[in-house]
Amino acid sequence: MQHLDGTMPCQRHTGRSSPHASRSVLELNRDAPAYICAVRILRVLQGVSYWVIEDPVEIAELINNNVTREWETDIAGTEDHDGRAWLDSLPERSWRLERVRLTRVRLDQGTMNYSDGRTGYSFVERLVERRRLLQRSLREFGIVIWPLVLRAEDRMLMDGYCRYHTLTDMKVKETFAYVGYPMGERFNRLSSRKPASRRNIEEYYRKHDDFRRYAMSNERRVKQLSRLYDSNRRYFGKRVLDIACGGGVLGFLVEKHDRSYVGVDVNRDMIGMARAHAEMAGSSNRFLLADATREVVGGSFDTVTLLGNALCHFDTKDFARLVGNVDPSVGRGAHFIIDYRDVVDLLYRRKWKSKLVERNKGMVTVSNTTNCDTKKGNLAGVSKWGDGTNRVEFTQAIWAPFIVELVMESRGWKLIKREEHSDWPGWLDIYRKS
Asked: pLDDT class for 191, splitting at 50, 70, 90?
């Protein structure tokens, strides 16, 4: 099996030697890599040819199922805690092919300085020999190489030191790389503070809008989403990404129709509830605790949904980032289904209730709108129980059809259907990726 570190198996920083190390680069390059079973494409960048995989799912399979074995071998029997942390993070990462500037790539000094006094092995000395051989093969024979492997959060080079140094020697400025983005609980601990529209979200849904209302146990929600799916079934492809999925009701509905499904939400209560139901039902649906405005969800999808007026939790900048983060995972002809309240219309017609009193199972909740900020595009509010306790501040983004359409069009999505929402004052939009 070939290493990704150059086009030939070679000693890596453990000092272990490959049984094929004496074979030439050109000879090895004729061999089809055993671990490449995905669709690979020949790309040329700044005079260098690359075999690349574009599908995020297939990149993840390459990394997790095959390349990981090499890393496991490298750290076996060592106390490489950083290496172990990297390996442990792989299942939680999404991958994408990117063009990267070599000047932005960081090198691991532990790898660069590795040497073994017992065998006399020096990583740097061995690297000099390997990069000379690789550079000659690139210049004289035009061999095809593979992308680097980078860790997204710090642009650390995790695999491809020979290729990196060879390309640098050749004055190449850009290369292709598989970049691994963290997601789920691990990334949430590393993320900076959530935007105002999503602060206090778990507290709000615990105290003022029972998160259990968004589960399969709520017949009303099941009926609403069933009706939405049945009316728009032709826009649902085989692979569905549901952003702000709540308790995952949509996923359990589309699964019955032989669709695969990934649900994403920032609310731990919602995701925990969805995962519990999936386990109980024997479902294959996946649920990720992640922020879609900050993370790229790995996979390839035919349909993206943002339902239940979840758009109110995203301002225009957040929403534009969210749509941009979806791009690597969808192709031309994919559909994006969104529903939302038309807050501009409600404000104009004075139908927006500045004070809203709700009663649910004997509990009274009072919500007051305290400010309308047209610069930021949101309404600020305070929610508390009827007795004045359990106060929670929140913001709600102001949306209208022309704003949604403007953001979507700027990201290459064309509106193909818009209809008034059947359950509340607002709209259901369907877009197609152009």
From this structure: very low
Q: Characterise 307 by phi-psi region: left (phi > 0), alpha (psi -120 to 50), beta (else).
A: beta
C-alpha to C-alpha distance for 249 and 271, rounded to whole angstroms: 11
Fold for domain 185-433? Rossmann fold (3.40.50)
pLDDT average, residue stretch 39-56: 85
Closest among 154, 169, 179 to 100, alpha carbons compared: 179
CA–CA dist 147, 134 (Å, integer): 14
Q: What is the pTM of this model?
A: 0.59
CA distance 81 to 394: 41
The DSSP bridge partners found for residue 115 are: 122
Cα 175 from chain centroid (whole Å): 22
DSSP strand pairing (363-373 vs 378-385): antiparallel
Residue 45 CB contacts under 8 Å (≥ 6 apart), including other chains: 99, 174, 175, 176
Nearest to 427 by CA among 402, 406, 394, 408: 402
Tokens, residue 287: 């649920």
- What are the sequence ranges of the domains in the chain? 25-182, 185-433
Please choose, from the candidates 203, 413, 397, 205, the residue with its C-alpha nearest in 3D space to the C-alpha of residue 319.
Answer: 397
| pLDDT confidence of residue 239 | 95
- Average pLDDT for residues 204-225, to the nearest whole number? 78
For 25-182, give the CATH class. Answer: alpha beta
Q: Is the pLDDT of residue 428 over 90?
A: yes
Exposed (0-12), middle (13-18) or buried (19+): which is 362, by Cβ within 10 Å?
Answer: exposed
What is the predicted pLDDT for the residue at 297?
78
In this structure, of 139-153, 177-191, 362-376, the range with the lowest mean pLDDT score is 177-191
